[in-house]
Amino acid sequence: QVQLVESGGGLVQAGGSLRLSCAASGRTFSSLFRGWFRQAPGKEREFVARISWTTYTTNYADSVKGRFTISRDNTKNTVYLQMNNLKPEDTAVYYCAAGRWESSNVGDFSAWGQGTQVTVSS
Q1: Which one, out of 4, 37, 75, 90, has a CA that is 20 to 30 A from the CA of 52?
Q2: Beta-strand (E) ranges in the chain?
Q3: Which residues have C-beta within 8 Å of that of residue 29, sequence separation ≥ 6?
Q4: Would the pLDDT of 31 be above 90?
Q5: How far apart are CA 60 and CA 51, in angstroms?
Q6: d(CA 14, CA 85)
Q7: Cβ 21 vs Cβ 80: under 8 Å
Q8: Euclidean distance between CA atoms 15 and 46, whole angstroms
Q9: Mean pLDDT of the chain
Q10: Is the pLDDT of residue 29 over 80?
Q11: Cα torsion through 4, 57, 32, 82, rounded to 10
Q12: pLDDT per residue over 32-51, tens digit each?
């Protein structure tokens, strides 16, 4: 099983920036796609961004396009989510995920991090 360890969450002011990190260990050979999801209170977990480990192709939710950037570091087996121009509506628990399919669906990601709280104040 792939193990994911997240870091970087916290409290920031609207318009500020934050970078989340997700380090993977274990059997990562089947985790061809890695992504970020978020879940606000009372809402379903929603897709934020994903990246292919083989092609570096990226995809973003419309709500974060132009503000968030997903990237990878092959040597560290780590995925990052750079969040700029944060808004109060970005407040949520953010989860790192890994899977074998090119998908934005929660059910297609088999490994998940513990989640990290991101709170954006106005």
Answers
A1: 90
A2: 2-7, 10-13, 18-26, 33-39, 46-52, 58-60, 68-73, 78-83, 92-99, 111-112, 116-121
A3: none
A4: no
A5: 9
A6: 7
A7: yes
A8: 22
A9: 94
A10: no
A11: 0
A12: 899 999 999 999 999 999 99
104, 50 Cβ separation under 8 angstroms: yes
Which amino acid makes up residue 101? W
CA atoms within 13 A on the CB side of 101: 8
C-alpha to C-alpha distance for 118 and 109, rounded to whole angstroms = 21
> Which structure tokens are listed for 66?
């132009």
Half-sphere exposure of 81 (CA within 13 A, CB side): 31
Amino acid in the structure at residue 60: Y
The amino acid at residue 75 is T
| Token pair recorded at residue 83 | 């969040």
Report yes or no: 92 and 24 within 8 Å, Cβ to Cβ: no
pLDDT tens digits along 67-110 = 999 999 988 999 999 999 999 999 999 999 999 888 999 999 99
